[in-house]
Design brief:
The protein is mainly beta and 161 residues long. It has helices spanning 6-15, 37-40, and strands at 2-4, 28-30, 45-52, 55-63, 71-79, 85-87, 90-93, 98-101, 106-109, 114-117, 121-129, 147-150. A five-stranded mixed barrel has the order 5-6-7-12-11. The chain is elongated and about 70 Å long.
Length: 161
């Protein structure tokens, strides 16, 4: 939306006959599209192409919020030919506030805590995901499925044996 001045509202008087500007002098807030609470509850997904020396090393995909935890996958964290971070057959969607660093590729929290490293075995709590679980998925994700959304991650070695 946008806050409109009384002067700019004259345009709306012409477009919307009967607008009661004299009875409701403003200021006005002209609203755009309104999402339902159900629509707002759907997490979004973001892609951050990670590059170094003008070469894309990985497509870092993260969620606007951590996934619910329905299970665990484990295996070697790899990068496929498209740059997608994978564990086994799953493309991994990372939790918010995580990012990549290189030499070797590693996933960190915003507090600089190491979460995972490419080439090492990881164990990720979370849930298998479908494109419809995220907003605007089709316009962003070029990595193939199946997909795994990670929950809140623990640092390596912090799990109880």
């Amino acid at each position: 939306g946008a806050m409109e001045s009384s002067r700019s509202m004259e345009r709306f008087d012409e477009v919307i006959p009967g607008l009661a500007q004299t009875n409701c002098p403003g200021p006005y807030w002209v609203a755009g599209e309104i999402e339902t609470l159900a629509e707002q509850a759907i997490p979004d997904i973001y892609i951050n192409p990670y590059s170094s020396n003008d070469r894309i090393l990985a497509m870092f995909i993260y969620q606007s919020r951590p996934s619910e935890v329905e299970g665990t996958i484990s295996g070697e964290l790899t990068v496929d030919s498209k740059g997608c971070l994978r564990v086994g057959e799953h493309t991994i969607f990372w939790p918010p506030d995580s990012f990549l660093r290189e030499d070797p590729l590693r996933v960190y929290t915003r507090q600089n805590t190491l979460l995972a490293q490419v080439g090492e075995t990881v164990e990720l709590d979370g849930a298998e995901k479908q494109p419809q679980d995220y907003r605007f998925f089709e316009n962003k994700v070029n990595c193939s499925g199946p997909y795994w959304g990670t929950g809140i991650m623990e640092t390596p070695g912090s799990r109880e044996e």
